[in-house]
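Work Package 4 report. The design task specified in the project plan requires that, given a folded chain encoded as structure tokens, an amino acid be chosen for each position. We show below one input record used in the internal validation round.
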């Protein structure tokens, strides 16, 4: 009797980074730390970039040279600024991916929050992504495809007196994420959100000793590093996540499941 031995060959492939070659990715709030990180990440993945922020222009970044993106200045605190941005975005063609990253997060005591501060926070954090999802989402739906990712925050489910309005705006944004996922899903448009972890360069004004204390309460015992959150956003916007919509995904080192100590 002849015994044949079969030697298994390891055919495991290395995970491939998503490709956005030939796709247009629109990112609001592009001049901030997360916005810059998102722009660099999607540029590296081959996307054509349309970036927007309040600054008159966006300075070239490492890995994102001048001429590698289209920049649109916009003041999103006012409704007219939001509508103008959407008009200009659509004039360039319907993007394949929309990332609602722009946000205001002033630390103001709840009883001292002025109506102007309220209007500014809700204008940037809620009205703007609402209108972008309405109008850009409708254009994506007409085309039959698209991906939208909203940048939310763990503040959506944490009560802080000096960040209550910001938290309320993010809680509402997450509800809109689910609502637009249901509304646009039948037309091939996916809508998700990410709750980013804290980073040193996104917590301007917070003393280092407090940042260290926060990092020590995160289950992974550190704050986020550049690229760790943007990689999750890229995944959700890629074909690898083609059957994911309406999800709120935390990329925070477990911080959302571990109550932080008071600062």
């Amino acid at each position: 009797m002849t015994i044949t031995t079969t030697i298994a060959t390891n055919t495991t492939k290395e995970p491939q980074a998503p490709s956005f070659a030939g796709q247009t990715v629109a990112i609001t709030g592009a001049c901030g730390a997360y916005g810059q990180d998102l722009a660099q990440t999607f540029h590296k993945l081959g996307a054509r970039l349309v970036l927007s922020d309040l600054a008159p222009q966006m300075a070239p970044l490492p890995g994102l040279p001048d001429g590698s993106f289209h920049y649109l200045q916009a003041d999103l605190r006012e409704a007219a600024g939001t509508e103008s941005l959407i008009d200009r975005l659509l004039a360039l063609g319907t993007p394949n991916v929309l990332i609602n990253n722009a946000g205001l997060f002033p630390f103001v005591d709840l009883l001292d929050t002025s109506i102007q501060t309220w209007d500014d926070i809700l204008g940037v954090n809620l009205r703007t992504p609402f209108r972008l999802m309405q109008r850009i989402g409708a254009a994506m739906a007409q085309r039959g495809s698209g991906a939208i990712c909203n940048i939310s925050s763990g503040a959506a489910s944490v009560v802080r007196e000096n960040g209550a309005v910001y938290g309320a705006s993010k809680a509402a944004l997450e509800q809109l994420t689910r609502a637009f996922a249901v509304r646009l899903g039948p037309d091939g448009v996916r809508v998700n959100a990410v709750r980013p972890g804290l980073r040193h360069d996104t917590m301007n004004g917070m003393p280092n000793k407090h940042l260290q204390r926060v990092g020590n309460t995160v289950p992974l015992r550190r704050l986020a590093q550049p690229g760790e959150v943007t990689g999750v956003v890229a995944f959700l916007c890629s074909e690898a996540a083609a059957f994911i919509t309406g999800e709120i995904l935390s990329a925070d080192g477990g911080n959302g499941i571990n109550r932080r100590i008071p600062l």
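Confidence is low (pLDDT under 50) at residues 3-13. Validation will be extended to a larger panel in the next phase.
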